[in-house]
Amino acid sequence: MVERAPVIAAWGAGVDSTAMIIELVERGEPIDMVLFADTGSEKTDTYAFIPVFRRWMDRHDVASDIVRYEPRNFKHWPPYDSLGTNMLTNATLPSKAFGRGSCSLKWKVAPQDKWTAQWAPAIRCWGEGGRVVKLIGYDCSSADQRRYAHAEGYADPRYDYRYPLRELGWTRADCIARIERAGLPVPPKSSCFFCPAMRPHEVDALSKDELRTIVLMEARAKPRLRTIDGLWRKPVVGRGGATPRPGNITAYIRQHGLLSPSEVDRIVADAPLALVAFQAAQACKPVEQRMSMARWLDAFHRGQSAG
């Protein structure tokens, strides 16, 4: 039998998983590796926080790594390397917008599992009939209660899942307090910057480039939408204490002046057509000669800023 199963922490670079790691390290509990799965479309503030906390982990002798899903089969499309450029390529929205769960399996879970499958401690553990312990940062808030209930129905013969924050009875407020006691800045809620689960105040905090990408993404997907309005699916009228909002984030951006009306109009009218023309121009080239979606998107942002 394995003397001690190796322990991996799934770190989302948000409040809960960060507090979980801090608390377990301070208690002297083993964490053999911390993995962050980068979708390429995290919030700007999340990318700023990642090196800050990795330095904290380095000082506390906690190993960490960043993993990524690597698309390979682009068919006739320009190459893409992020969840955001994947959505723009396919003229669609994240699966959560259609009520089908999240994008985490492909862009979060699978890259971590692929990395772990090549990790010597995991290979040795599995070879001896053991299971790797995976730490998940679900707290005791109502939202995470639902996520936990769903996760409890999932079994994987390679892993034992542990939920330390639930063992401690911690809420999100407890997690924030723990991060502050460690002398670290509190990170933003972990999600892609176009996540359908974002609340209005999170949209308010986005950068101009992130807002422009959302407008482009919804405009690009609109001709194919039949049952939803956009990333937020359907309007919320505000009953029962809910914050009123439209069904698409573009309308919210326009209503609250996060981008000028003329810029929103210009993106909606011109950018999807320009993107389709770009894709068509790349389709006839060998894949190694095609310009990437990331480069096109950079040019799009430069053009909007100059305009």
How would you describe what is shown here?
- This protein is an alpha/beta fold and 307 residues long.
- The chain has two domains: 7-70 and 102-181, HUPs (Rossmann fold, 3-Layer(aba) Sandwich); 200-306, no CATH class.
- It is built from 13 helices and five strands.
- α1 (15-26) packs across α8.
- It is globular.
- The number of strands is 5
CATH topology of the largest domain: Rossmann fold
CA radius of gyration? 21 Å
Give me the CATH superfamily of the largest domain. HUPs
Strand content: 5-15%
Percent range for helical residues? Answer: 40-55%
Low-confidence segments: none
Second CATH tier, the architecture of the largest domain: 3-Layer(aba) Sandwich
N-to-C CA distance: 65 Å
Query: Which structural category do the helix and sheet elements fall into?
Result: alpha/beta
The main sheet orders its strands as 3-2-1-4-5
Shape, principal axes of CA atoms: globular
- SSE sequence, one letter per element: EHEHEHHHEHEHHHHHHH
Reported for the largest beta sheet, the result is:
5 strands, parallel
Mean pLDDT: 92
CATH class of the largest domain reads Alpha Beta
Protein name: Phosphoadenosine phosphosulphate reductase domain-containing protein
InterPro entries: Rossmann-like_a/b/a_fold
Organism: Sphingobium cupriresistens LL01
Write the layout of secondary structure elements.
Blueprint: E1 7-10, H1 15-26, E2 33-37, H2 44-59, E3 64-67, H3 83-90, H4 104-117, H5 120-127, E4 132-135, H6 142-151, E5 159-162, H7 164-168, H8 172-181, H9 200-204, H10 208-221, H11 249-255, H12 261-283, H13 293-306
Parallel strand pairs: 1-2, 1-4, 2-3, 4-5
